[in-house]
Specification:
The chain has a 4-stranded antiparallel beta sheet, covered by helices on one side. The chain is α+β, with helices and mostly antiparallel strands. The chain has one domain: Alpha-Beta Plaits, CATH 3.30.70. It has 3 helices and 4 strands; from the N terminus they run ββαββαα.
């Protein structure tokens, strides 16, 4: 079950476990969040693979955000990466890449 917290402006804050492995992944996911309607901020911690997303629940929801991460080629909690998007990732961004 996903859990949300809320900031003092009433925006929801969610933490999503991703399959990101490097700074290129960070750039890709954060760019996807910047284009997602209703998302105010999306920051990925590469070490923990946790994406912290702040969003307006009147404009989007957690399922849509997880789908956007998936469509970028990465797992998002229980939502697997879109296979076509994953295939198009740079080799260093794939889960089984050596780092």
């Amino acid at each position: 079950m996903d859990s949300l917290s809320y900031n003092d402006k009433g925006f929801a804050i969610a933490k999503i476990k991703t399959s990101a492995v490097c700074n290129m992944c960070k750039e890709t996911i954060e760019k996807a969040m910047a284009y997602e309607k209703g998302v105010k901020d999306g920051v990925l911690d590469v070490d923990s693979k946790i994406l912290t997303v702040t969003f307006d629940t009147k404009k989007t929801d957690l399922d849509k955000i997880k789908k956007a991460v998936s469509m970028s080629g990465y797992d998002a909690n229980e939502v697997p990466a879109n296979p076509k998007a994953y295939k198009n990732l740079h080799e260093c961004c794939k889960k089984d890449a050596e780092h």
